[in-house]
Amino acid sequence: MTKEKATFGAGCFWGVEEIFRSLKGVTSTAVGYAGGTKENPTYEDVCTDETGHAEVVEVEFDPSKISYDELLDVFWSNHNPTALNRQGPDVGTQYRSVIFYHSPGQKAAAQASKEKSDKSGRFRRPIVTQIEPAPKFWRAEEYHQRYLEKRGQSHCAI
To answer: Beta 54-61 vs 26-34: how paired, if at all?
Structure first.
């Protein structure tokens, strides 16, 4: 079985992880930080909004069971990609909408899917999602991993 990785930022990583973890074909998920300047950041560091990191979910998946395009569809459907540096009540660059691609194929698929979503009419404002090469992924503290599952919740309460 070949596994691939996908990395998405779509607001608070607790809810985003829960959504991707439940998909058939996803073999593992981890929440963490990516896209900033600080080495080995902590949650407290990232919350200062000074490290440049986004809260992200690293998804490991089996492409024979779920395609990258299907993961992208889930990404677009589960947050507001037109909100700059915020999702719901959460504000700051760590909550930005971002796709970190791991290959030229993922980059092309992400760009095509962003254009398709932008033209679909589903969103009233332009999509602000960033599409960037995957930087180093810093795994978040253990208490953030599967945070909602540990508390018997399926999504973040707004």
So the answer is: antiparallel
